[in-house]
Amino acid sequence: MSDHSDAPVGTGSVTPLPAFEPPYYVVVFSSVLTDGDQSGYDETDERMDELVREVPGYLGHESARTPGGLGITVSYFRDLAAIEEWRGTGEHRAAQKRGRAEWYERYTVHVARVERSHGFERA
């Protein structure tokens, strides 16, 4: 298991994040994009990635989207206070509002406390 202070942040490779030392929290954001204009979506996504890294207690995230349009992002946070700080960030709230108005057909958010975590890596 990994020490949280040494954990890599974000995605960008095909390697999953390490198993963190529990307890910690995950936020699972599952979404389907609209068939409409997605202008500004990628730029906003990049900006949210920059902003969330500034939240104390943010550990990292992993994200994937199927060819059919289902997207799943799993974000890892040390505690509920970190999630609440991220949730209340002004730019994040503005992006959520724009997402509901323009980009998302539907989405769900699940927040869970992780009690056990482990990983495997072939040598």
Automatic annotation (TrEMBL):
Pfam families in the cross-refs: ABM
Claim: Oxidoreductase is one of the keywords in the record: yes
Q: Which InterPro entries match?
A: ABM_dom, Dimeric_a/b-barrel, Jasmonate_Hydroxylase-like
Keywords from the UniProt entry: Monooxygenase, Oxidoreductase
UniProt entry tagged with the keyword Oxidoreductase: yes
Q: Name one GO molecular function term.
A: monooxygenase activity
- Residue limits of the ABM domain? 24-98
Q: Which domain of life, per UniProt? A: Bacteria
Record protein name field: Antibiotic biosynthesis monooxygenase
